[in-house]
Request: fold
Amino acid sequence: MQDGELAVDLPELRLSDGPVAPVAFDAPQLLDEATISIDFEKNPLHRNCSQDDSVFLVAYCPEYKDFDFSDATARRRKQVVLRLNEAWVGKEVHLWGFVVDNARRASQSIYIGSGILGDFPTETGDDDIDFQDDEATVPTADAPAAEAVATGAVTAFAAPRAAPPGGK
Reply:
């Protein structure tokens, strides 16, 4: 208990658990001041997974004690986007991701990190959301799903990516 409230170690919080193959999440990117995009890849340790599995992002804002969930994104898309409540700009936000298959079984959730959702872009070009510097982990042969611990994203949000040649 902390100040009369239950204290939760958010990086250790598991939002989902199950047998579905997880994905490897890249560092979050800001598309605008309240929209987060994260690219992901199929976890190479898992051979049996469906490209139709649904990938989700979950965000939590401690100040508002509120969660926000992305829409389902097919694993084959390799990118998930979450539009957050604009009231969260300037507030601390925690991110997790997980996968759900067609039988409604889940993967173990992965803690992606936490940071301050800031006004973006800035005139100086500096990143506004700095996620902690610890590396997010996914299950490996040495640390199976039940034992893997995600401790945060690798880098800060970066400026939106320029469109590749051809505009796609």
Remarks:
- The two ends are 50 Å apart (CA to CA).
- Strands lie at 23-25, 29-32, 35-42, 54-61, 66-69, 73-74, 79-83, 92-100, 110-116.
